[in-house]
Amino acid sequence: MIEEFPLIEVSGTPYQLGYQHGSQAKDLVQKYLTWIEKLTGQSRDILVQRAITFLPLIRQLSNDLASEIQGLADGADISLEEAVLCQVRTEASQTEDGGCTTFAFTGQNTTDGLTLIGQNQDLEPQYEDVAILLHLKPIGKPRALIFTFAGQLGYAGLNQHGVAHFTNALYGYQWQYGTPHYPIKRILLEQDNLAKCLELLQSVKVCSATNKVICDGEGQICDIEIYPSGHSIWQDKWTNGLVHTNHALTDDYVPQEKYLLPDSRSRLNRARQLFEENLGCLSVSVIKEILSDHDGHPAGICRHGADGMYSVSGYIAEAEKRLLHVRRGSGCLGQWKTYVV
């Protein structure tokens, strides 16, 4: 078993970032595009036709990101349309994106009073074979370390200011044309504090639903549920702590949810129980144990095949220390590696 994800390190202008990414991960980018077709059951021709319709919204969000996508296409020797598809997989196919259990704790809840934030990433197991760690060193913008898939420029990560974000898929909403989530995730990692992240999220109209757990390097944490119809901040029962899974928790969106991942509520209850039992002594090692919990197997926090999904990776960010711990594989068997942004 390979114990860590490929590390792709890029630097320079937006176009250079994309070109270096594409050229270093060319084979994996092709593998990711093939996996998107298999996952969605849709032909690449149809998917790229839909994908390119989102390029104007990506340009509106960030011209630099559009330039990076062009660099990716040139570096990986794929079409611009295919490069855009890598950024809008769920929107082009209108498919939901996995499970996941997220958390954020700080202040009196952790052993050193510093922030710990992260998640278990629950997806189909084939994602593990196309996943990378993308280390960005752009000119004039923050360094960032992103767990993502080859060719996809935005996903979960941590930047040099201590801004980190992680995500839960939400279900039971009505799709609408809007800004894709993965480009938004990338632009979040160009921000230097939580307030700017929230301002960004509140300024864009999205086409699908998601929950984001966010922190910055000053010990601030937040959870925000985002739907095509708007957004709502979720406040958990703890001061300086929160947990989320794959269903709406805010009063604004609970009534609108048509269906949800069957195990989401029981998994949330179990995660809350484990975190509450360890309040005041939460550490990286304690959270690693929580992320390996099998209660409710195969649909536990450490997921083993329920609804076709597995815990293919996990992350714990120490925001103030600019450290990102990344696990390849399940919570019970996977290997952790620590990276400095």
How do the strands and helices of this protein lay out in sequence?
Blueprint lengths: L6 E6 L1 H11 L1 H15 L3 H8 L3 H7 L1 H14 L3 H6 L3 H5 L7 E5 L10 E8 L7 E8 L5 E6 L6 E4 L4 E6 L11 H8 L5 H10 L6 E6 L5 E7 L2 E5 L6 E4 L19 H14 L6 H7 L19 E9 L4 E6 L6 E6 L1
Parallel strand pairs: 1-4
Antiparallel strand pairs: 2-3, 2-11, 3-12, 4-5, 5-6, 6-7, 7-8, 8-9, 9-10, 12-13, 13-14
Helix pairs in contact: 1-5, 4-5
Q: Which terms would index this structure?
A:
2 domains; 341 residues; 11 helices; alpha+beta; six-stranded antiparallel β-sheet; Penicillin V Acylase, Chain A; 25% strand; 31% helix; single chain; Arc Repressor Mutant, subunit A
Q: What do you see in this structure?
A:
The protein is an alpha+beta fold and 341 residues long. It has two domains: 12-94, Arc Repressor Mutant, subunit A, CATH 1.10.10; 96-340, 4-Layer Sandwich (Penicillin V Acylase, Chain A), CATH 3.60.60.10. It contains eleven helices and 14 strands. The strands form two sheets. The protein has an eight-stranded mixed sheet with strand order 1-4-5-6-7-8-9-10. Strand 4 (131-138) and strand 5 (144-149) form a beta hairpin. Helix 1 (14-24) runs parallel beside helix 5 and helix 4 (55-61) packs across helix 5.
What is the typical, i.e. mean, pLDDT?
A: 96
Rg, nearest Å: 18 Å
Count of individual helical segments = 11
Oligomer: single chain
Number of beta-strand segments: 14
Helices and strands: which structural class?
A: alpha+beta
Helical percentage: 25-40%
The coarse silhouette is: globular
User: Strand order, biggest sheet?
Assistant: 1-4-5-6-7-8-9-10
